[in-house]
Amino acid sequence: MHGTFTDNDLSHVIEADKAHVWHHLVQHKPFESSDPRIIVEGKGMRVWDQNGKEWLDAVSGAVWTVNVGYGRESICKAVYDQMIKMCYFAQAAGSVPGALYAEKLIEKMPGMSRVYYCNSGSEANEKAFKMVRQIAHKKYGGKKTKILYRDRDYHGSTLAAMSAGGQDERNAQYGPFAPDFVRVPHCMEYRKHELGLDHLSGEDFGIAAANLIEEVILREGPETVGALCLEPVTAGGGVIEAPEGYWPRVQEICKQYDVLLHIDEVVCGIGRTGTHWFGYQHYGIKPDFVTMAKGVASGYAAIACMVTTEEVFDLFKNDASDKMNYFRDISTFGGCTAGPAAALENMRIIEDENLLENCTKMGERMMSNLRALQEKHTVIGDVRGKGLFLGAELVTDRDTKEPVDEALAQKVVAECGTHGVIIGVTNRSVPGRNNTLCFSPALIATADDIDKITDAVDKALTTVFG
Ligand SMILES: Cc1ncc(COP(=O)(O)O)c(C=O)c1O
After folding, report:
1. Could you tell me the distance, in angstroms and rounded to a whole number, from the CA of residue 443 to the centre of ligand 1?
2. What is the pTM of this model?
3. 2-9 — which CB contacts under 8 Å span 24+ positions?
4. Domains, the chain, ranges and CATH?
5. Atom number of ligand 1 nearest to Cα 120
6. Nearest ligand 1 atom to alpha carbon 231
7. Distance (Å) from CA 122 to ligand 1 centroid
8. Model confidence over 259-274: pLDDT tens digits?
9. Per-residue pLDDT tens over the stretch 346-361
């Protein structure tokens, strides 16, 4: 048996799990006749399950999180040292790693200035939403409370984050949602026919897709719209990069209508898209809020950050005589020092090991491998993404773009498993669109790892679709 566990220990763990653990985003009925996968150990790009089986993890902990790979002793040591010295104090006071990480992070984010710590991506987004609402009350007499979000984007699992959720299967049965969240159309070129824009392509399409946001602002009334919240590359909604021309037009629209721009970097943040630290930095945009979580400490500790500009910060401190004039929010676990201690070491590793460059290089290799698979397998309708954040959309017919049945997409994932590779697929996301295979290997991936992943996909597609 692997590591320090005996067979007996592990059968007890499996029984305890089956009896008492409620897993996320999976049906539990199958666990009555089969065992859940228990991940026992991880090193680099690989993990081992309860049966000692080795897996090559192409999704960084299933939800694009472990950016620097498993088993990083230097992160564990940094967390250990920090926790022995000072584990926790609420954030009305500062902490040594909190101050040092904020300084390092802001160095990587020209134009941004303040870091608010909390403990999940959903929570970070909620902080930004609350700030938008408070600004509406303070600066606009209670107007400009509306927050726009985009079809197919996701911002978290709490109720306000779901109110900004563009994935109707995720949201189904959890309403009613919070008021004043308004949806704008997606910007996906592959499915531009859904937007009535199939006559346009390239930059023309990008500008037209951004103009659909302007239409919503004009319909709602610009005096009611406070913010626009977007993923730089849509993740769980299908790995969608916005087309050329989209982002400059989005920025113009926000400026014209005095709408704050909130970029959700929970997935893209800290290197996942390659070359830059953040997804938005590829497109030259200047956000007012940037939220991040998963890759901040690669899952070694729970940490999320909500980052704003000095202009936003100033709105919350410019009148000390007003006893309500500050961000009246608390995040208990935002005060855990393990988060910023791990994040500092995570950032050092990315810099010292040149992982932003490796991510770009390996992302290009993976993209080219996937394009070769697209040539070979007609079921791949589209491949897209940025850096080591890629998707392959499966369709029954390239002309109609009819999605494959989700059971078949899941079969491809299971088949990859028989070859020892864990990949992902869009899951209970956009109705009828759970058909995009997802890849987000750790930024340490080698050419050999990438080829092993795409070889497994090749074999799996042949088994499932012939
Ligand atoms: C883009 C995006 N934003 C926010 C979240 C929510 O993060 P968390 O699960 O840490 O609350 C996620 C989670 O997958 C995400 O993909």
Report:
1. 19
2. 0.97
3. 2/40, 2/41, 2/48, 2/52, 3/40, 3/41, 3/48, 5/40
4. 37-66+354-465 (3.90.1150.10), 74-352 (3.40.640.10)
5. 10
6. 1
7. 6
8. 999 999 999 999 999 9
9. 999 999 999 999 999 9
